[in-house]
Automatic annotation (TrEMBL):
It comes from Suricata suricatta (Meerkat). The keyword NADP does not apply. One of its GO terms (cellular component) is cytoplasm. PROSITE patterns: RGS (PS50132). One of its GO terms (biological process) is negative regulation of signal transduction. InterPro entries: RGS, RGS_RGS5, RGS_sf, RGS_subdom1/3, RGS_subdomain_2. It is found in: Cytoplasm; Membrane. Inhibits signal transduction by increasing the GTPase activity of G protein alpha subunits thereby driving them into their inactive GDP-bound form. Binds to G(i)-alpha and G(o)-alpha, but not to G(s)-alpha. Residues 64-180 form the RGS domain. This is Regulator of G-protein signaling 5.
């Protein structure tokens, strides 16, 4: 073992230099600040290239969130609106749960459940949704043995949040006003 600088065998000195070089490389700053810039599009994304719904259909979106979520153009418009507010994680979680429910294979279901949990549910998740501890605990217990209904309680809470908070803001937004002109 290497002890004291004077007593360092040749191989220990070489190893120390290698480690120093490797650490130096890891600690280097990027060549330019451009490497650190996250692109930001000032204009919100346009809804997907689906056909604009007739006025009477778009007006029905005021009746329920379900009507928006069942319409491709409505869903795309709602998603664009939420992205413009940096709050699309609730819709993304809700959609991930809808996809999850359709999985038949237990192995794929367990894999997808883990991914949803890590992306949306766990504390400090990249797209953590705002659910209470009770709902989080129920969801975690349901994930011990994943089933199509594992996320039902959390999904209902998020749906309710979107219905009470996001939907009214969307209906007052320019996104929706432009659509019903």
């Amino acid at each position: 073992m290497c002890k004291g600088l004077a007593a360092l065998p040749h191989s220990c000195l070489e190893r120390a230099k290698e480690i120093k070089i490797k650490l130096g490389i890891l600690l280097q700053k990027p060549d330019s600040a451009v490497d650190l810039v996250i692109p930001y599009n000032e204009k919100p994304e346009k809804p997907a290239k689906t056909q604009k719904p007739p006025l009477d259909e778009a007006l029905q979106w005021r009746d329920s969130l379900d009507k928006i979520l069942q319409n491709n153009y409505g869903l795309a418009s709602f998603k664009s609106f939420l992205k413009s507010e940096f709050s699309e994680e609730n819709l993304e979680f809700w959609l991930a749960c809808e996809d999850y429910r359709k999985i038949k294979s237990p192995a794929k279901m367990a894999e997808k459940a883990k991914k949803i949990y890590e992306e949306f549910i766990q504390t400090e998740a990249p797209k953590e949704v705002n659910i209470d501890h009770f709902t989080k605990d129920i969801t975690m217990k349901n994930l011990v043995e994943p089933s199509p209904s594992s996320f039902d309680v959390a999904q209902k809470r998020i749906y309710s949040l979107m219905e009470k908070d996001s939907l009214p803001r969307f209906l007052r937004s320019e996104f929706y006003k432009e659509l019903i002109k």
